[in-house]
Amino acid sequence: MESANQTEERGEQMAQTTVDGVEGVQGLVGQHLGHSDWVTITQEQVQQFADATGDQQWIHVDPERAAKESPFGGPIAHGYLTLSLLPSLIPQIVTITGFSMGVNYGTEKVRFPSPVPVGARVRAGATMESATPFAGGIAMNLAVTMEIEGGTKPAMVATVVYRRYV
Q1: How far apart are the two ends of the chain, measured CA to CA in Å?
Q2: Is 145 within 8 Å of 119 (Cβ atoms)?
Q3: Which tens digit of pLDDT belongs to each residue from 10-21?
Q4: pLDDT at res. 7
Q5: Among 54, 70, 91, 126, which residue has the fewest nearby CB atoms (within 10 Å)?
Q6: What pLDDT is recorded for position 123?
Q7: Which domains occur in the chain, in start order?
Q8: Whole-model pTM?
Q9: Which residue positions in the chain have pLDDT lower than 70?
Q10: Which of 62, 78, 70, 137 lies closest to 105 in space, CA to CA?
């Protein structure tokens, strides 16, 4: 996976949507915010994720066996690996200023409709579903779809909940 510095070196824009403060965030409700850059899923990433999580299932970490025995024709990324890409991809889509900090508050309705083959390219798209102020900040629900380049079904769909604090 590329770092933000590598993306900047290629001259690509980091965020497609920029907004400031509670009112700015509320103004985004119902709007599609854009897409991240495409990211290639590598076998090395899949192996590192398997090592970190302990999920060493052969459909992920044994390319030869996966090519012969799996219904996917080769190794696939863990569904949770695709979900774990969001902290690096969401900032490419939206920049929110006027807050001292933000946290990932959770995810809702996560589904993995299509497997991601190793070597495939994925990107995230996001829509602001809701923005609810609370004392000291705002809670935001983003509807996120992870697309597979050339695919007909998404790799992942989820509602991701973030909180920003003033």
Answers
A1: 31
A2: no
A3: 445 567 899 999
A4: 39
A5: 54
A6: 98
A7: 14-41+79-165 (3.10.129.10)
A8: 0.87
A9: 1-14
A10: 137
